[in-house]
Amino acid sequence: MNKIRVRLADWVKDNADIRRIREAVFVAEQHIPVELEFDSEDQDALHFLALEGDYPIGTARLLADGTIGRISVLKDWRGLKVGDALVNAVITEAQGRDLKPQRLSAQVHATPFYERLGFKVVSEEFLEAGIPHVDMVRESHLPS
Q: What are the residue boundaries of the N-acetyltransferase domain, all occurrences included (predicted)?
C-alpha cells in the first residue's frame, strides 16, 4: 500500500472525486438521500481529499465557523488510519485559521474514534438523516 496523504481540495476541480466518495459512503452505504448529503455549504467550505498514491479514498470539509463534516473514507480503506490522517489535517488547517473550537456532529458509533482525536461529546443523542448522532467539540491543540 502506498503512503496516505491528505491535501486541500478544490470544490470545482475535485468535485467528481468528492462526490464519488461521499455518494459511496453516505448515499449508497448509509442510505442518506443525495439531496441531504450535498448542501449549499459545500460551495464555501474548505474540502480535503485523502489519497493513496493519486487515488482519492477519503474526504472531509471544514466550514468557516470551525465545523468539520462530511468525513468519509471508502470501505476498502477503513481501519488503515485514513480517517486519522484526514481529521488531523482538517484540525491543523482549522487551527492555522484560528478556528477554535472545532465542532462536528458524529454518528454515535464513531464517537470513540473522535474522542481519540481529542473531541468530547457535548449533546444528547439526536437523529440526523435517520442516524443517531451527538455533537462533539475539540478545544485543545493537537499533541506535539
A: 4-141
